[in-house]
Amino acid sequence: QVQLVESGGGSVQAGGSLRLSCAASGYTYSPYCMGWFRQAPGKGREGVAAIDSDGGTNYADSVKGRFTISQDNAKNTLYLQMNSLKPEDTAMYYCAATAKTVPAIQALGVMIWSGFGVWGQGTQVTVSS
After folding, report:
1. Which of 36, 95, 99, 114 could form a Cys-Cys staple with 48, CB 3.0–4.6 A?
2. 10-13 and 123-128 as β-strands: parallel, antiparallel, unpaired?
């Protein structure tokens, strides 16, 4: 059974940094595209960053220049380095994956990521001002 388990969330002050990790297990194949998504209280889920097997990456405008997505295939782990955090980054962060050939450049659209087949349980990030 495929599982994604996020970790690394926490509470930080504005301007601080966190690194989220997403450990994948149970895969008999490598997912083509993986991404990070977030949902703030009272708001819908949104795409934050995505990476595909060809090395392509994509970021939401709100996090460009502050967040970096990466993956360690040897460890089956996806990362999200978050710097210069803002209170508006406060949300539950989820990682997700798909085996479909979805380029990262397309992966942050809701019609695309809503079809991702595997999701983690989420990790909370809280940024105080």
Report:
1. 36
2. parallel
CA distance 48 to 78: 13
Q: Are the CB atoms for 113 and 47 separated by under 8 Å? A: yes
pLDDT band at 30 (very low <50, low <70, confident <90, very high): confident
Q: pLDDT tens digit string along 8-21?
A: 999 999 999 999 99
Q: Are 123 and 96 a contacting pair, CB within 8 Å?
A: no
pLDDT of amino acid 1: 82
61/54 Cα distance (integer angstroms) = 22
Convert the pLDDT of each residue in 61-72 to its tens digit: 999 999 999 999
Q: How many CB atoms lie within 10 A of CB 121?
A: 11
Phi, psi of 51 (to 5 degrees): -145, 140
State how far the alpha carbon of 73 is from the alpha carbons of 69, 70, 113, in Å: 13, 10, 21
Q: In what order do the strands lie in the sheet with 18-25?
A: 3-7, 18-25, 77-82, 67-72
